Amino acid sequence: MVDCAVTTAGGIEEDLIKCMASTYLGDFHLEGKALRSKGLNRIGNMLIPNDNYCKFEDWIMPILDQMLKEQNEEGVVWTPSSMVWRLGKEINNPESVCYWAYKNQIPIYCPAITDGSIGDMLYFHTFKNPGLVIDLVQDVRRMNDEAVHASPRKTGIIILGGGVAKHHICNANLMRNGADFAVFVNTAAEFDGSDSGARPDEAVSWGKIRMDATPVKVYADATLVFPLLVAQTFAVNWVPKPSLN
Known about the structure:
Blueprint: E1 5-6, H1 9-17, E2 24-25, H2 32-37, E3 40-43, E4 46-49, H3 50-74, H4 80-91, H5 97-103, E5 108-109, H6 117-128, H7 136-148, E6 156-160, H8 163-174, E7 181-186, H9 200-206, E8 216-219, H10 222-232, H11 234-237
Parallel strand pairs: 1-5, 6-7, 7-8
Antiparallel strand pairs: 2-4, 3-4
């Protein structure tokens, strides 16, 4: 029921790191200096110890070494999505979305793969074992082709949050004169001209959503609303594949 996903580097790495160590509930108003002195990093009201990223580095570096080896010896061309599949395979943990994407061969595109701890790890790797290349252009083509070659089927997009992932999803549908269905869920407003805050009607003006579509934007916390949407749509209509046994 899902052909592909697009996310941020943070979406990938935190999905993997949660399988290695805990993230803690904090508060939006905790003082930065106090947290820094204790080795705690704040993301909203979540706290992530520095040690989590040390564990992530220890885990991912041998994988990057092996990817470089396969690039040099087998001619493998790595893209962000193929890298995510590899990481999902290696984490081998059902708590991970990347694991299930790999297992079900659902591409997860990450146009800004370097914008997070993964980017730090790739940077560190250039000193330890240089030469690994991640080809973003190949993924841009594949992502756009997801929309272009969807015809005669229709395309529907569910966008949680905003930023780079939101824009790439919409822009891929520009290549087919717009998505047929669209649901945006975020808390951003459009008064500042941000892409995150842009209403679906702005995407209609670009041809990213079709003129005859009836898109919806829900102004809400996606972590609260999306499970409810899934429960009343995908979950209700899901039919398990017949067993091969």
